[in-house]
Amino acid sequence: MSTTTPTAAGIGALALRPLDPLKDAVLLHSWVTHPKSAFWMMQDAKLVDVERAYMEIAADEHHHAYLGLHDGVPAFLMEKYDPAHRELTGLYEPEPGDVGMHFLVAPTDRPLHGFTRAVITAVMAELFADPATARVVVEPDVGNKAVHALNAAVGFVPEREIQKPEKKALLSFCTREQFEKAVSA
After folding, report:
1. CB 100 within 8 A of CB 124
2. Using CA of residue 68, residue 114, residue 53, residue 44, what is the dihedral sign?
3. Which residues does 28 contact at the CB level (< 8 Å), separation at least 6?
4. Pairing of strands 135-138, 168-175
5. Is 124 in contact with 136 (CB distance < 8 Å)?
6. How many whole angstroms from its chain centre is CA 172?
7. pLDDT tens-digit profile of 67-124?
8. Residues 176, 133: contact at Cβ < 8 Å?
9. Residue 147, Cβ neighbours under 10 Å: how many?
10. pTM of the model as a whole
11. How, if at all, do strands 168-175 and 157-163 pair?
């Protein structure tokens, strides 16, 4: 996965590349421990914790991490996982073609209007570029109202609240058709 996705006017080019857990750890550490990244739940993580967490993902056949680039500069993180084997095991009935997703936009002092929406749109387009992906599944914290609005903007429909070990989450789904309808509107 290293495609470049056209984005909204004025945003620039977005691309994804596989995350290198060791080379990218210092950068990731600065992102996940930032106060704006509270919902990532790594506020107190040390550098070694971030390295370890992403080394585990790199070794996991059911979970993958990608560094997102904005005009060639690291600007966001995407994780893709198989919800039948990770994150949501036993919390819902997975269907063939389900893909789980997390994303994090790097904290910045100079926000670019529309950037986060462009990122989630590009992430979803990348996931649906795989013909095997029928539906994207997310489980954000119930209190993360900003991400609920972003999810709705790209077609996600909340199903129900679920209790995960680390949080109360809003289980939501987006089919390919829901995504296409949302982004073409």
Report:
1. no
2. positive
3. 19, 50, 54, 77
4. antiparallel
5. yes
6. 13
7. 999 999 999 999 999 999 988 888 999 999 999 999 999 888 787 888 999 999 999 9
8. yes
9. 21
10. 0.90
11. antiparallel
